[in-house]
Amino acid sequence: MSHPALQIEALSVTLPTARGIVHAVRNVNLAIAAGEMLALVGESGCGKSVTAQAIMGLLPDSARTQAHTALFNKQPLLTGKYQKNIAMIFQNPMATFNPVLTIGYQIAEPLRLLHGYSRKDAEHETVRLLERMQIADARQKSLRYAHEFSGGMLQRAAIAMALACKPELLIADEPTTALDVSTQAEVMALLTELRVEKNLSMLFITHDLGLVSHHADRIAVMYAGEIIETASTSSVLDNPAHPYTRALLAALPIRHSNARLAALEGSPPDLRFPPPACAFAERCAKAMPICIQQSPPVVEQHHAARCWLHNTGHTHE
């Protein structure tokens, strides 16, 4: 990769709860080039959204965040301030908008507050953004409220509001989960078009490996707060290196196949008490004694995996 636009090294986040301190993100490394889409994939609760919120500066004051390096376009992140050149699309579009303000007013707000648009110019740009999001009769739609939009239309309006911030990095946190399959495809195609059109760096967060297969350039797989595999999309999908990634792929339904889906037994570890070695060892069919004794190294190359199986000094028996 050329010099990455987003560069995160050794990011860790702890969150205090009534039941103890949760080590939600642990020593995470991420890099995204300009114009690249990186998909951050993993099951619910693995730390994907907390990672995104840390980058955006949206974590609560009680969170404790540290990193060796946290830069976007060479400017520091994790400053506790909202990042103006980074925007985020959330999972639930209904929760994105204030129900008592019109859609148009809310899209125009960042144009006026962040970029100094006059009210008239902001209204004009709002209509243009809604039209770019393929929303028909955009001027009239801008005068409506969130409850008057369908789920897919509202998510496209949310993308328009994110673009009003004029971001260089767009974080999409499971933006298609609440949508039907055909609308999912439309939103993904739109995000891909925008990425190419504006040379946007994009972090796409999802639990669905199949969804990103045609859109992401690279995939980072997250488990129990750690990145356990990173490679090009084709490399991860065709030659998964980590047993957890293989288990995720085995659980995907295969078209025209009647084979039963493979279930992954067990549960992720309690991150109030993170394991000192491999977090996946207790669920892994290929676990070795060293897997529960020492944290595995990241075997770097074009295809990075955090697993003892790829250390030449250890083999599974």
Quick description:
The protein is globular. It is α/β, with parallel strands linked by helices and 317 residues long.
Secondary structure layout:
Blueprint lengths: L5 E12 L2 E13 L4 E5 L6 H9 L7 E3 L2 E4 L2 E2 L9 E4 L3 H4 L6 H13 L3 H14 L5 H4 L9 H14 L4 E5 L7 H18 L2 E6 L2 H4 L5 E6 L2 E7 H6 L4 H8 L47 E2 L4 E3 L11
Parallel strand pairs: 3-9, 3-10, 7-8, 8-9
Antiparallel strand pairs: 1-2, 1-4, 1-5, 5-6, 10-11, 11-13, 12-13
Helix pairs in contact: 3-4, 3-6, 4-6, 6-7
Describe the 3D structure.
With 317 residues, the protein is α/β, with parallel strands linked by helices. Helix content is 30%, strand content 23%. It contains ten helices and 13 strands. The strands form two sheets. The chain has an eight-stranded mixed β-sheet, sandwiched between helices. Strands 1, 2, 4, 5 and 6 form a five-stranded antiparallel β-sheet that branches. Strand 10 and strand 11 (226-232) form a beta hairpin. It is globular, with a radius of gyration of 21 Å.
